[in-house]
Amino acid sequence: MVVISECSAPTASRFIPVSLRKDAAGVLVRRLSLPRRSWSSKVPSFRTLAVRASTPLSVASEACAKVIDGKHVSKLIRDEISAEVSRMKEAIGVVPGLAVILVGDRKDSATYLPLPSHMNEQSILNAVSIMKDVDGFHPLNIGRLAMRGREPLFVPCTPKGCIELLHRYGIGIKGKRVVVIGRSNIVGMPAALLLQREDATISIVHSRTQNPEEITREADIIIAAVGQANMVRGTWIKPGAVIIDVGINPVEDSKSSRGYKLVGDVCYEEACKVASAITPVPGGVGPMTIAMLLSNTLTSAKRAHNFQ
Fold first, then answer.
1. In Å, how far are 7, 32, 302 from 36, measured between CA atoms?
2. Who wins on pLDDT, 167 or 32?
3. Fewer Cβ close by (within 10 Å): the C or N end of the chain?
4. Which residues are paired to 250 by β-bridges?
5. Tens digit of pLDDT for each residue in 130-179?
């Protein structure tokens, strides 16, 4: 039996004054770490960040799959953002700023900042100004994303990063069969909406799906976002499929100084022998999420100051 859970922890990036440092892209980033409490554990268009034929596809070990290098692509994007930040500073004297609240000391909090279970997610999202909703989670932004002929002010960062990786590597989406594994408000659902805008044919596999392996094997592109380590095995994958692994799961590792290592939702060792291209974990989608967050922050600052 296969059990699929839903990963629904949002990035908790909010504009408040806390400790300050400057990101490599030139955006001022503020971070506040809060102690653990008694709870358990297209503006702008994606085409603006144009596909580069020179983006390297490095070979994954001795297998045929090629590595979709999120670190490399995110650096290109951060360099582009840095240039825009410099232009904005020189023109109007404004440097975009981003505040991040880090709640608790969970291992995954240091990676994607989950919201603790005792907090009401809906109330928090509704309290955020839509003009500063750089996470792209505000109900109005999600609603606009779902509607044809409407454009959200911001697109959720992780799904946006997934699509951007496909664009940068010249991987066609139009007309392709895409399976999104997971239906969370944070990744799965908005990823499916973005893919629909790209004219893909979408199937969503979730915790109540029967025969998920069979459905997944039909996919030309797989986006896995369920938060279960190594759930997608090599036998789930059609030869030549492209895999975007969103999962970031800590598993025990006695060889690591931290006592754990991060792995994806896809069993990389098996998948790289079947797929044509795959994102590694870490170093795939994670850096892209951060780059897209900075991109959204820049967009928010430009809009606030009417800067083109």
1. 21, 13, 35
2. 167
3. N
4. 262
5. 999 999 999 999 999 999 999 999 999 999 999 999 999 999 999 999 99
Tell me the CA distances in angstroms from 5 to 110, 265, 297, one per residue in order.
21, 11, 30
Structure tokens at 142: 């999600």
CB 114 within 8 A of CB 9: yes
Burial class, 37, CB count within 10 angstroms (exposed 0-12 / middle 13-18 / buried 19+): exposed
- For the chain, first and last CA: distance in Å? 53
Q: Residue 106 class from Cβ within 10 Å (0-12 exposed, 13-18 middle, 19+ buried)?
A: middle
3-state SS class at 58: strand
Strands, E assignment, 176-276: 177-181, 201-205, 221-224, 242-245, 249-252, 260-263
Contact 189, 139 (CB under 8 A): no
What pLDDT, on a 0 to 100 scale, did the predictor assign at position 99? 78
Query: Contact at 8 Å (CB) between 253 and 259?
Result: yes
Q: What angle do CA 111, 203, 173 make, to 5 degrees?
A: 75
**Rounded-to-integer distance, Cα 265 and Cα 205, Å:** 13
Q: What is the pTM of this model?
A: 0.80
CA distance 104 to 139: 26
Q: What distance in Å separates the CA atoms of residue 136 and residue 302, rounded to the nearest whole number?
A: 16
Confidence of residue 63 (pLDDT cuts 50, 70, 90): low
Kind and range of the H or E element at 76? helix 70-92
Identify whether 212 is preceded by a cis peptide bond (ω within 30 of 0).
no
The answer to whether 102 and 110 have CB atoms below 8 angstroms apart is: yes
